[in-house]
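Now for today's protein:

——
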Amino acid sequence: MFTAQRVFVCFITCFVLSINLCYSQVGSSSVKYLGVENGLSNNVVNSLYLDHFGFMWMGTYDGLNRYDGYNFKVFRNNFGVDNSLINNHIAVLNGDKQNRIWVGTQKGVSYYSYSDSKFHQLFYAENGKNTILTSSVTAIAINKLSAVYVATDENGLFELKKGETVAKKVLLKSIKNYTVKALCVSDDNVLWLFIKDFGLCNYDEKTGKINLVKRDIKNITSIINAENGALWLGTEQGLYHFGKKNNVLIKSAQYPEKDNIMNLMLDKQKKLWISTDGGGIVVLDTKNNNVNRLAAGKEKGLLSSNSIAQVFEDRESRKWIATLRGGVNIIDQQSTQFQNIRHNALKNNSLVNNFVLSFSEDEQQNIWIGTDGGGLSVWNRKRNAFTNYVKTTNPASLKSNFITSILNDADNNIWVSSFSGGIDRYDKRTQNFIHYNCYNSAKGVDDVNIWKLYQDRSKNIWVGTTRGGALYRYNKLADKFELFDNDLKDIHSLFEDAEGNLWAGNYNALIKIDPVTKKHDFIKINLAIRTINEDSKH
């Protein structure tokens, strides 16, 4: 389920290093497309942002889109409705630590709050009054202290500090109206900005003053952090590298073209993705200086447009590409690496059964795979070989072929639970299975229908059983599973939260359990709970 405190003495040093240049046309068979036919409100896409909850937000020429991986939800301005989007022409997107989505439009700023599912407008103080900002927005940046900076066309820079509700307009040497084309918060938390017809500047948050750093560079459209505390500058005439420590400005020799750069993005592999207006995407590997170009074309796997507004990298390293007239393109370089693993009746060395219920990885990176009625497979990925275990007449074999859960514990022991067979632990030395029962002392019977194995941070192994079975915990000293609470029945899922509470799910309720006092609270859901997890907000 997607971010000055000093005045620099300026001197100009522009030079070009002689580095070998290697271009190639690159098409990716893993390019996917999203457009109006998929529910996108408009194919002119200006900005992308992945929020904390995994939604991809897409700002277009006509509306704001929220994409969940399957469907689009479109937000537009509703005339006369206070808490709707301020304008439909979206220019830029960003998000803060409060999970607010900041939306810069052609006529002002809105932010979307998940707390009330509404849009709110940005006000700023002017002449003793609070006024809605209605200027055309060119960039939004958020620093490490959660201050929000809004760059506008002809109305300057606005600052909204954390905890404040009204923004402040930042003056430029008594100049009221000026145009800010690009913003970037550097690694040392300094705001950098390019002001049209003025130059590259930084902002001193303590004094509230804008300091001119480099006057002689023009038409910067994008600023991002480079390695070693430097900056990459995208301009209407190509790419530059700027050293903040010595004010050295270098025209990129690796990529000397004078393309009109729309946006820059440095990915996790230290590759610089350069979005251009008409030239597609240029990918500069900053480690070896190789340069590749991704271009549009009618063939499958090529970009849908050569006019690129932005490239955004998500948590799984997918590249989301906002195009001007071609919708959204997605490059998923991992997508072609999926392998379909199936049972082959004509081959002994294959998955034991196609009906997979559970799996786990051991310390050797082998995958243990439990099936519904077929037994257990161990896939050695290095050799692409399978070892299969099934129930036989041998008392040291599996107790059941219906493998419901597999646990590789903190000591790298493999535990296997099954329906009608209890629990088995694999003995690596003998390659046999050691059997365990879950004796219900309250009922005087064994619970043999095991559904879930789980180990918490204290290395306790928990067992959820079904068919009216109870919750159990492993006693390592006694080497047996003991009844924890007979009232906690039909547990299908288990999870320990950040505070040490154990959460369980059954056929119709979520259960909060204190592992020490055994107190528990039932939260009625009236649906079967199959999995439980916790996000970073706790």
